[in-house]
Amino acid sequence: MTWTWMLEDADGNAIDTPDSDLGSQGDAESWLGERWREFAEQGAAAAILLEDGRQVYRMELSPAEE
Question: Which domain of life is it from (predicted)?
């Protein structure tokens, strides 16, 4: 199984995603956890986790409001 991320902008358009072919869901989630702020600063609004090309879930990349 291959776990990857796809990033989208606020309009739902795919944007360049760094290589993220990872071996497990946990590895993929850790990988995004370390980088999501950087991606958000570059215009990513959402990240979609894919398992062998099948969407597992989608999450917004906006920080929680205080």
Answer: Bacteria
Burial tier of 54 (Cβ tally within 10 Å: 0-12, 13-18, 19+): exposed
Output the CA torsion sign for 63, 26, 43, 9.
negative
Kindly report, residue by residue over 50-65, the tens digit of the pLDDT: 999 999 999 999 765 5
Instruction: Kindly report the pTM of this predicted structure.
Output: 0.86
Tokens 């990349």 -> residue: 61
With a CB cutoff of 8 Å and minimum separation 6, the contacts of 7 are 14, 15, 16, 17, 39, 44, 46, 47, 48, 61
Q: Is the Cβ–Cβ distance between 2 and 21 less than 8 Å?
A: yes
